[in-house]
Amino acid sequence: MKYNPNEIEAKWQKHWADNKTFKAENNSEKPKYYVLDMFPYPSGAGLHVGHPLGYIASDVYSRYKRHRGFNVLHPMGYDSFGLPAEQYAIQTGQRPEDTTSVNIDGGVDKEGNKIAGYRKQLDKIGFSFDWSREVRTSNPDYYKHTQWIFIQLFNSWYNKNTDKAEDISTLVSIFTTEGNANVNAVCDDNIQAFSSSEWNAFSSDEQQKILLQYRLTYLAETEVNWCPGLGTVLANDEIVNGVSERGGFPVIRKKMTQWSMRISAYAERLLQGLNDIDWSESIKESQRNWIGKSVGAMVSFNVLPSTINQQPSTIQVFTTRPDTIFGVTFMTLAPEHELVAQITTPEQKSAVDAYIEKTAKRSERERMADVKTISGVFTGAYAEHPFTKEPISVWIGDYVLAGYGTGAVMAVPCGDERDYAFANFFKGQNGMPEIKNIFDKDISESAFGAKEGFQLVDSDFLNGLGYKEGTKKVIAELEKIGQGKGKINYRLRDAVFSRQRYWGEPFPVYYVNGLPQMIEAKHLPIVLPEVEKYLPTEDGLPPLGNATIWAWDSVNNKVVDTDLVDNATIFPLELNTMPGWAGSSWYWMRYMDAKNDGEFASKDALKYWESVDLYIGGSEHATGHLLYSRFWNKFLKDKGFAPTEEPFKKLINQGMILGMSAFVHSLNITVLGDIDDIFYRIKILITESIFKKYNSCFIDKNFLSSDEFLRNIVFNQLPKEYAENDDFDINLQFFKERNVDISLINEITNELDVDGFKNDSKYSDFKYSKFITEENGKYIVGREIEKMSKSKYNVVTPDDICNEYGADTLRLYEMFLGPLEQAKPWNTAGISGVFGFLKKLWRLYFDENGLIVNNDAPTKDNLKSLHKTIKKVAEDIEGFSFNTSVSQFMICVNELSTQNCHSRTILEPLAILISPYAPHIAEELWAQLGNTASISTVDFPVFEAKHLVESEKEYPVSFNGKMRFTMTLPLDLTKEQIEEIVMKDERTQKQLDGKTPNKVIIVPGKIINLVG
Q1: Residue pair 647/612 in contact by the 8 Å Cβ criterion
Q2: Quick one: pLDDT band at residue 719, thresholds 50, 70, 90?
Q3: Counting CB atoms within 10 angstroms of each CB, which of 180, 320, 492, 994 has the fewest?
Q4: CA–CA distance, 54 with 823 (Å, rounded to integer)
Q5: Which is it for strands 551-553 and 570-572: parallel, antiparallel or unpaired?
Q6: How many whole angstroms separate alpha carbon 454 and alpha carbon 667?
Q7: Triad 451, 456, 459: Cα angle to 5°
Q8: What are the C-alpha distances in Å from 588 to residues 78, 437, 775, 783?
C-alpha cells in the first residue's frame, strides 16, 4: 500500500471541515488555552512558503494542547482593510471590497488575474483553525464594533487620580460643580482655567471645544507625515528613508486637523505592564525605548520682545538635566514649532522659511537617525535666562522634533554632543555665542555628558554640586520664581488616527458647526459608501469627498444624499477613515464571540477566554500593532469590558524564511562612431564560474587589456566590421545583476533554462542576448540568500510544495529548517529528504499488500526508542524547539525500522506523537489501525522513565589502549565479576596469546583495558 499524500490530505481536510473537528466551545469543563496568530493582510500575491512558518508552529502547539486535554481556541481571520487594495483600485478601477474578497476566497479578478485565495491555501496546509470564528476587519459586521470602541474612547477621559479612563459625564459633573482648577487629567497643554459658574455660562459649542481637550480621542491640528503621491497621512513605520514603504513616494511634514488617540495617557501603565508578560527581552526593550520615560523638569524661557513680536511668548522646554541650566548657550526649536513664525525677525524670515520647506521633506525617523548632518538657522529672536536674565539666541534645527518633548531644547553644548557639534558648526556666526563651560572638566575636544564625577562651576547657587543635588535644588528654585517644575516626560506621542483613504473604517462622526458628534451605537455600522474614484477630490478632500451619498440625517438616523446637507437636521459626515491598526487593535476579543451581533463579545465569553495564552507573529510589529493593542486592551479594561490588563501573556516572534534568489550577470556592449552614433549594441550574459574567475577584472572595467579570453568574450560577439575597425569606439557598460525567476532554474544544478528565459516577457530585453556558458554548454546562474519577495522572483508557493510532496512534508520541513525565532534560508532541494522520512514512517505500518501492524509484544529496544521520543517531543513542544522534535522523529523511525518493529503497542502512540506536526498521515494511520474517532484529541502518550533505564552496557574491551572488541554485560556486575567474565572470553585469550596482563583496568559502566 503506497503512501499517497494528496489523496490522504484531501480526505482528512474534508473530514475536519464536515465534522467541525476544531470548533472550540465557550463553555467547557476542560481548561482553556488560546493560541493566536497575527492575522494576515490578504494580498493578491497570496502566500509564499515564508508566511506559514508561524502558523505551522502555532498549529503544532494547538494540536499538542488538545492532546493534553485543553479546550483550544485557535482562530484565523484577515486584516483586510489597507492601502494596497486601495492602490490597486486606483490603478484598475475595481472595488477594493471585490478584490479583497477574491484575494481571500480565490477566483479571477476583473483584470483576468487568477488568484489562489488565502483560505484555500491555508486549508491546503491542514491547519486546525476554528473557521466558525473567522473575522474580516473590512466586513461591516466587524467594523461596527470598531466604530463602537471609537465612540467609547471619544466619550472618555483619563483621570490621573484613579489612574484609569472614566466616562466623560463624570468630568462634566466636576466642571459643573467645581470648574477645572482641581481636575488632574491627561489633557492638552495650556488649558485655560475656569470656574463652575463660567462653565455653566459657556455655550454648548464652547463646552464641546473644551471637552475635546480632555477626550481620549480628539480632533487637533497635528504635525503629520503627508504623502502627496498616495494622498494620505502615513505612520512613522510606513516610511522608509523618507519615502513611503508602499510605492516609494516622497513624504513631507505638514500640519493637518486630524483625529488622534491619547495613548500617552497610558504611557506608565504600558511601561509597567511589560514586567508582567512573557515576551522576549528585545521586544520589551523596543517598547520601553518607544515609550521613552524621562525624569527631569519643565522650564519656561520668556521670549524677549522684538519689533515684530510685542506679544508675550514663552518657550517651554523639558530637560532631563536641569542641573546644567547655567550652561545654556542657545536654544533650538523644531522647525515646525508654533512659535517659529511668531518670533522670527524680518531679517531672518527668508532663511527660516527656506529651511522649514527643506526640512518638511524629511520624516521624523530620518531626522532622528541622521546624527552626522548639522543644519539650522538663527531666527533673530532671543529668550531670557530664568535666573541670569541674559539674552539667549533662538535657532531652529531639524535635530529637534516637534513631537518629542515640547519641540524645544535648551542647548548646553558643554554637556551634550549634538549641541556641541551644532555650536561649533555655527561658531562665529551671528547669534551663536561662545560655548559656556559649567563643569570642572576640559571640553576643548568634546562635550562632557556624564551624570557623575564632576562638580558644577560658574553656576551661581549650584556651584560645587553634582547631578542629583543640583537637579533637586534648581527645580526648587524654578518653582519659587514660577518658571519651572519637576516633571516626568515620555517620548510616546499621541497616535494620529486619521487617514485620507477610502479603504478603511468610516468614523461614526458627523459635524455640527464644525464640531464632531457621535452617531448613536444603535445606528451602527456606518457603512462605506460607493464612490466613482478612489483618489482625493480635485479640491484636495479625501476620497470620501467623492461620495454622493454621505451625509447624516439626524432626524431619521440614516446616511442620505450629500446634496441634502442643510446644517439644520442633515449634516456632513467625516471624510477621513480610520488607520489600518484600528481593526487589529482588538480582533483577538472578537474571536472569543465572533457571531455576536449585539456586542463585540459577551461578558461570559470574555470571562472564559480572558486573554491570549500564546501569540505568534513577526517582530516588525513591536512598536506598532503590539503597543496599540495593549493600549486598547487597557482602555477596555478600564471601561469594564476586557477582563485582563494585558492582552497577550506569551509572545513568540518567528524568524523570516529567506528566499534563494537567482541572478544573471549581464555586460552591455555598445559600438560608437566618431560622433557618438550608435552602430551596434548587444548584451552578453556570463555564466557564474567565469564571472567569479574574472570578477575583479569586471569591477575594474579593464578586462579588455588584462586577459585574452575576456577580450575574446567581447570581440567574438561583434560583427567583423566593428571588431577590426579602429574608427569605432567600444563602450562597455558596467556589469549588472538581474534577478531571474527561480521557476526557470534547476534547483539542484542551478542551470538556467535559456530558451525559457529568452521567451519570458519579463526578460524581453535579453531576448537576443549572447550567452557565455560553461564548457559543457550550460549557463549557471548566481545564487544569493535574501528576503523572499515577488519583486525578486524568488517566491516559492506552498501550493506547489503541497501538490508535489504533500502538506505534511511542508509542515515538517518548515519546522525542521531551524529554531523558530531565527531567520533561515529556504532550499527546495532539501525537502525531498523530509518526504523520504514520511514514506519510511509509512512503511512501518504498511507494505505493498497492506497493513502489517501486529500485536507482538514490543522489545526493550522498541520501548526505549518510543519513550525517548515521547520525552523529547513533549519537552521540545513545551520549549518551542520544534526543529529538534523533527530530528527525533527521524531518529526514532530509523531505529524502529532497523529493529523491524511493527508492534501496535509502539506504532499507535507514535502516530499520536507525530500528529501535531504531520496531522494528515497521523489521522490516516490512526484510522487504518481500526480507530473511529479523530486522533486530534487522543491523550498524549505518557512517558515512562523505566524504559530509558539502562540494564546493560556495551563495553569496549581494549588491549594496551587499543579497542579490539566489545562485550555487552549487565550494569550491576562488580569489578571482580567483570574481570572474571572478560578473562574467560575466548577473544581475550586469543589477544593475550598465553601471556598474563600486568594490569586489568575496569571502570564499571565505562571501560575495560588490559595492559601489558
Answers
A1: yes
A2: confident
A3: 994
A4: 12
A5: antiparallel
A6: 63
A7: 130
A8: 12, 55, 59, 41
pLDDT tens figures, 276-314 = 999 999 999 999 999 999 999 999 999 998 755 557 789
List the alpha helices (DSSP H) in 806-903.
807-816, 831-845, 860-878, 882-898
* Residue in this structure with the C-alpha cell 503497542, named with its chain if needed: 905
Contact status, residue 812 vs residue 886, Cβ threshold 8 Å: yes
Residue-range domains of the chain with CATH:
28-141+587-656 (3.40.50.620), 293-489 (3.90.740.10), 509-578 (no CATH), 658-788 (no CATH), 806-947 (1.10.730.10), 952-1011 (3.10.20.590)
Output the pLDDT for position 970. Answer: 87
- Here the cell at position 401 is 522634533
Among 19-28, 473-482, 755-764, which is the least confidently predicted range?
A: 755-764
Kindly state the cell numbers that stand for 772: 557565455
Q: Which helix (H) or strand (E) holds 296?
A: strand 293-303
313-334 tens-digit pLDDT: 899 999 999 999 999 999 999 9
- In DSSP terms, which residues pair with 612 in a beta bridge? 648
pLDDT for res 696: 64
- Average pLDDT of 951-976? 91
The H helix count followed by the E strand count for the chain is 35, 39
CB 474 within 8 A of CB 485: no
Cα separation, 245 vs 87, whole angstroms: 13
d(CA 532, CA 135): 28
The single-letter code of the amino acid at 920 is H
Cell of 986: 575466548
Give the C-alpha separation, 656 to 869, whole Å.
28
Q: Which string of b and e fits 714-739 if b means at least 16 CB within 10 Å?
A: beebbeeebeeeeebeeebeebeebb
Compute the average pLDDT of residues 650-658: 95
Is 441 known to sit in a ligand binding site?
no
Residue the block writes with cell 512558503: 49
Q: How far is CA 805 from CA 78, 111, 200, 796, 850, in A?
A: 28, 32, 75, 14, 22
For helices 798-805 and 5-19, the axis angle rounded to 10 degrees is 110
| CA–CA separation, 775 and 282 (whole Å) | 51
Q: Is the N-terminal amide bond of 525 cis, ω within 30° of 0?
A: yes
860-878 helix and 904-914 helix, angle to the nearest 10 degrees: 10
Residue 700, pLDDT > 80, answer: no
pLDDT at 250: 86
Report the phi/psi class of residue 653: left, alpha or beta, with left for phi > 0 and alpha for psi in -120 to 50: beta
CB atoms inside a 10 Å sphere around CB 913 = 23
C-alpha cell at 407: 519641540
| Angle at alpha carbon of residue 797, lines to 792 and 800, rounded to 5° | 130
CA 566 to chain centre: 46
Which DSSP string corresponds to 14-59? HHHHHHTTTPPPSS-SSPEEEEEE-PPP--TT---TTTHHHHHHHH
pLDDT for the residue numbered 799: 95
What is the number of residues in the chain? 1012
Interatomic CA distance for residues 232 and 247, integer angstroms: 13
What would the pLDDT profile of 522-565 be if each residue is shown by its tens digit? 999 999 999 998 988 877 789 999 999 999 999 999 999 999 99
pTM for this prediction: 0.86
193-198 contacts, C-beta under 8 A, 24 or more apart: none
**What does each C-alpha distance from 98 to 102, 103, 533 come to in angstroms?**
6, 9, 15
pLDDT score recorded for residue 255: 79
Q: CB atoms < 10 A from the CB of 878, how many?
A: 11
| pLDDT for the residue 953 | 87
